[in-house]
Amino acid sequence: MKWSEEVRDGAIVASPKGKIDESTALGFGTDLEGAVASAAEASIKLVVDCAGIDYMSSRGLRALTLAKRKADGAGVKIILAAPNQIVREILAISRYDKLFGVTETVDAALAA
Amino acid sequence: MLVRFWGTRGSLAVAQAAGSIRSKIARALVAAKGRHFADEADAAAFVEDELDFATGGTYGGATTCIEIEATAGDGSFIVCDFGTGSREFGISAFARMAAGHARVFNVFMSHLHWDHIGGFPFFGPAFDPGSTIVIHSGHADVEQAFRRQQDEISFPVAFDWLRAKIEFRVLAAGETYRIGGLDVEVMEQQHSHKSYGYRFTDSAGKVAVFSTDSEHKIESMEGEADVANFFREADLVICDTMYSLADAVSMKEDWGHSSNIVAIDICHEARAKRLALFHHEPIYSDDDIQRMHQESIRYEELTRRDDSLEVLCAYDGLEVRL
Ligand SMILES: [Zn+2]
Ligand SMILES: [Zn+2]
Predict the structure, then answer these.
(1) Interface of B with A in 171-230 (CB under 8 A)
(2) CATH number of the domain residue B267 falls in
(3) pLDDT digits (tens, 9 = 90+) for B271-318
(4) What angle do CA B259, B262, B263 make, to 5 degrees?
(5) What is the pLDDT of residue B66?
(6) Do B63 and B52 belong together in one domain?
């Protein structure tokens, strides 16, 4: 898993790449919570650009939940943007598409 | 080794009502498209081969009870849990004992909640003076739970009136025991008042793991490596998969249950061969459970590594030969 982030149009756009499973979820969670803290400091939202994520197991999903708890506490909104077909299916099967806002594109998330 | 499921529902026994049977029949008739069947066997073959399980069958509604027939065991019955499915098992056991099966039962209790002990007062062999029932549990208060259930305020037959020889044995988590001709390893699990998982290995080297009412807490995901180790290369893992992951980490957090996708992830990590989805949510219809099963199979495909994991969905009456 590779992580990069930038500030764009009044949001932090984070772009994790690779697969997120039990071997990479810990680092993913740490990076995610770091981005939540930065977003909280700047009082802006966090868009996770999922386009580069190959697949995500329950470890990654649960890291998202841990980050969302911190984000909710700090008033930061997390939006999942542009998941590939596999990640989209996993979000549906786990019902995570009911816990998180999911958008087709990063632009749609920025506009949301 | 043969694993037979007598009860697969969680929390509360449920039964199909008239409306659900009516819609199954209606759906079957539509699927038959006016076809003529020569006899009932011909029609049964159509049900078996051409209808989906939720239309042609049912997952059942009895609460947890599983039987393991070990290869080269000591001849005793090996059972997990005394949910309401154990009533039916008791009837089957009587028939087999009449045909010469040993009148000895080794029962392993996941824990002592109603859905896991509620069949015991209706378990026929408990009334049989020739039977011996050994109830193994990780809980030191196991005997209290069984006796209290039959207090006069709750049940007309007191525990002391039962005629079988009934013993309680407390097992320690982390230990491996030789019971009933099997190696039995015990694991403590996260659940209200704790629960215990059991790993059974028979003389042929076949392994079945019974792990129900086990929450895999979001704050302690590193601990799942221990669970994966307990499931290691098992031929069958029976897992509590009551909720979706989203429910298990939000509204139903701390309710003591797990999800289909966490079970699949841990089984993948453990390189287990088969997973049986188990402890079904009582509000789920057969269609709901079937959908959950299909989604679980799909998730397994999406996240598969080197070896595939066969994802079964337990139902009352399912037999799995390992
Ligand atoms: Zn239960
Ligand atoms: Zn329970």
Answers:
(1) 218-219, 221-222, 224
(2) 3.60.15.10
(3) 999 999 999 999 999 999 999 999 999 999 999 988 899 999 999 999
(4) 85
(5) 98
(6) no
The residues pairing with B275 across neighbouring beta strands, listed in sequence order, are: B237, B311
Interface of A with B (CB under 8 A): 21-22, 25-26, 55, 57-59, 61-62, 65-66, 86, 89-90, 93-96, 98-99
Q: Within this chain, do residues B126 and B154 fall inside the same structural domain, yes or no?
A: yes
Q: List the single residue in A25, A94, A98 with the smallest CB-CB distance to B261.
A: A94
* Same domain as B136, residue B44: no
| E-state strands within A5-70 | 5-8, 11-14, 18-20, 45-49, 53-56
pLDDT band of residue A30 (cuts 50, 70, 90) is very high
Span A2-111 CATH architecture: 2-Layer Sandwich (3.30)
Cα–Cα distance list, B300 to A49, B135, B208, B215, B267 (Å): 24, 35, 20, 20, 10
B75 in the same domain as B24: no
Q: Is B157 in the same domain as B48?
A: no
Residue matched to tokens 């993913």: A28
- Whether residues B218 and A65 touch (CB distance < 8 A) is answered with yes
pLDDT at position B222: 85
Residues contacting residue B119 through CB under 8 Å, at least 6 positions apart: B7, B62, B63, B65, B82, B83, B84, B85, B86, B87
Query: What is the rounded CA–CA span in Å between residue B313 and residue B209?
Result: 15
Domain ranges of chain A: 2-111
Give the single-character DSSP code of B305.
-
Within 10 angstroms of residue B42's Cβ, the number of other Cβ atoms is: 11
Residues A71-102 pLDDT 10s = 999 999 999 999 999 999 999 999 999 999 99
Ligand nearest to the CA of B115: 1
Candidates B163, B159, B100, B156; CA nearest to B127 is B163
The answer to whether the Cα torsion of B210, B214, B222, B310 is positive or negative is: positive
Q: Is B224 exposed, middle or buried (0-12, 13-18, 19+ CB in 10 A)?
A: buried
Find the domain containing B289 and state its range.
2-14+59-321
Residue B219 pLDDT greater than 90, yes or no = no
Mutate to test the interface with B, among A23, A53, A58 (most CBs of B within 10 A): A58
* pLDDT recorded at residue A63: 95
Number of domains in chain B: 2
For the residues B107-125, what does the mean pLDDT come to? 98
